[in-house]
Specification:
The chain contains four helices and eight strands. The protein is of the alpha/beta class and 203 residues long. It has a domain of 140 residues: Rossmann fold (3-Layer(aba) Sandwich). α1 crosses α2. It comes from Streptomyces liliifuscus.
């Protein structure tokens, strides 16, 4: 009798995007969008979609930027469990979109459920035209049979694993540090004329 050894299933390691990558992706999405005509309003899906939405709006010269909070994961950590359905908060934040040309932006599409739910909400407000854009699609979570390009208008990049964006942490948020009262000894006054750091470490 022979036995067959089944190799363990390995999950690809998550990839971490740098700000330079985000800038390149948003420029790409802005170019794709403008090629089909400028939108009047950009809507970012909170939280991750708000940052690329603002960047794309600046690149397109669009001043009307709005937001809606829709979440589909239970925590912020890598490979976080998903809720049974995307949850929406404060839909009134979208305001009046009737008759407007709207670009809906998110950071990533996995199953596409969050983007699809938000798209239906925005369409119900009577928009004249609605397009969707994401920085990246995680193909390992995409359900099919339709390809991502059939359901999303503009995609900057495809990946096959979890993505950590520059504004995220790999293990989710850290617990807040205990509050202490600084003393003169702990926080000495800077010397006159001393330069202070102007940039945060983004490595």
């Amino acid at each position: 009798m022979t036995t067959t050894t089944i190799p363990p299933v390995t999950t690809p390691a998550p990839i971490r995007l740098a700000w330079s990558g985000i800038e390149a992706f948003t420029r790409d999405l802005a170019e794709q969008t403008s090629g089909d005509g400028l939108p009047e309003t950009v809507v970012g899906i909170m939280r991750g979609g708000m940052i690329p939405a603002v960047m794309i709006a600046h690149q397109l010269g669009i001043r009307d930027v709005r937001t809606i909070e829709v979440t589909h994961t239970e925590t912020d950590g890598v490979n976080a469990a998903k809720t049974s359905a995307p949850a929406t908060k404060n839909p009134a934040s979208l305001g009046d979109l009737a008759g407007r040309d709207v670009l809906l932006v998110d950071d990533i599409a996995g199953s596409g459920a969050t983007l699809e739910r938000t798209r239906r909400m925005v369409e119900a407000l009577g928009v004249r035209r609605l397009r969707t854009a994401v920085l990246t699609v995680n193909r390992s979570n995409w359900p099919g049979p339709a390809a991502p390009e059939e359901r999303i208008d503009y995609i900057a990049e495809h990946t096959d694993t979890w993505v950590i964006f520059p504004w995220e942490t790999e293990k989710g948020p850290k617990a807040p540090a205990p509050t202490t009262t600084p003393t003169a000894e702990d926080d000495p006054a800077p010397e006159q004329g001393a330069a202070s750091p102007s940039e945060r470490d983004q490595g």
